[in-house]
Amino acid sequence: MAAALGRIAAADASLGAFLEVWAADAARRAAEVDARLPLAGVPIAVKGRRGLRAAGPLLAAGCVAVGATSVPGPGPGWQTWGLGARGRTVNPWRADRTPGGSSAGAAAAVATGLVPLATGGDGAGSVRIPAAWCGVLGLKLTNADRTRLAAPGVLTRSAADAAAYLRAMAPRAAGLAGPALPVPALWSPDLGFAAVDEEPVALARAAVDRLVAAGAVRLVRPRRPLRLLDPGPAWLALRTPGADPRDALRTRAENDRRLALLFGTAALLLTPTTPTAPHGHEGPGDRYSTALTWAFNLSGHPALSLPAGFGTDGCPAGLQLVAPHGAEALLLAVAQRAEDTGVSP
User: Fold this and answer.
1) Which residues are registered as beta bridge partners of 138?
2) Which residues are catalytic?
């Protein structure tokens, strides 16, 4: 705990990952924690000032919250940035680029080793996008309530740490055994509708090839390429008070049907996590960084962003893995194989 607080004190003035640091309270709780708990004394960060409530199961397992991480303030749209107590949150790999968001500070804090685990919330990709752009693992759980679109999530540097989070937050999902590796998987660069840049696609596809070589997945080809309906208008309608939800519900139902057919033949869907590299702090312009993630908030499927290497700009990219409902353990098994075999940098 002392080491984590020391790292935060030394680095956060330039990183901007934290809104608040609870040093005295964290030190006291670390001294009092029951050493028999499975995560006794593990320092974690929680997303935003309201993050302690969502982190309840982690605290009950022995984790100690050191502070609240940055989230977006007023400014550019699509929540792909953060604002800490000392200014904007920077990407740990390039200070002139955003870390992504809305779990911006969480990703930056984990990527720089300030804490081993930080909670997030994912309503359209808010865990997976910053995970990809900061070069860490980001897991979104199965949506328990799809009417709200958002699901809990976590950012870590390892599959083992994410598995510890899953055991605390969703023990039933953690205990489910997935199929033996390699599992059948389908690759889609754009889900049939998204405009994507060449380099993030190439990096993600290279990571897929490494997963194949590592014996984690085997690629299958469907009879027809996967083509989802663009979830953007449906997502926006469901989040807009007073909007007519009928078209949105039709889009959801049709995409659910297409995904059910896919998961009838493949255990995983693989895509780039984001369609672009990290943008500057001036904002994302007219490009939706959520283009490849928010479909699975609409559908409720669990999804994980795995580090996929670095672009020519020096920033990380991610590979998104999507699994059937409740199959978080499968996502983490593939991520663990990737780490064990050097697939994921």
Assistant:
1) 155, 305
2) 47, 102, 126
Backbone angles phi, psi at 69, to 5 degrees: -85, 160
3-state secondary structure of 110: helix
Q: Kindly report whether the global pTM for this prediction surpasses the value 0.90.
A: yes
DSSP state of 306: E
Question: Which residues are registered as beta bridge partners of 88?
Answer: 83
Q: Are 166 and 304 in contact (CB under 8 A)?
A: no
Angle at 106 between CA 63 and CA 320, to 5 degrees: 110
User: In this structure, which amino acid lies at residue 317?
Assistant: A
- Measured between alpha carbons, how far is 147 from 111 in angstroms, rounded to an integer? 32
User: Could you give the angle at the alpha carbon of 159 between the alpha carbons of 183 and 166, nearest 5°?
Assistant: 95
Q: Tokens in use for 47?
A: 């997303």
Q: What is the pLDDT along the chain (345 residues), one digit of tens a residue?
A: 999 999 999 999 999 999 999 999 999 999 999 999 999 999 999 999 999 999 999 999 999 999 999 999 886 667 889 999 999 999 999 999 999 999 999 999 999 999 999 999 999 999 999 999 999 999 999 997 767 799 999 999 999 999 999 999 999 988 887 789 999 999 999 999 999 999 999 999 999 999 999 999 999 988 888 999 999 999 999 989 899 999 999 999 999 999 999 999 999 999 999 999 999 998 887 888 999 999 999 999 999 999 999 999 999 999 999 999 999 999 999 999 999 988 776
DSSP H helices in the chain = 2-15, 23-32, 51-54, 56-60, 104-111, 128-134, 159-169, 171-174, 198-213, 232-239, 246-263, 295-299, 328-340
CA angle (167 as vertex; 59, 153 as ends), nearest 5: 75
Classify the C-alpha dihedral 104-287-196-227 as positive or negative.
positive
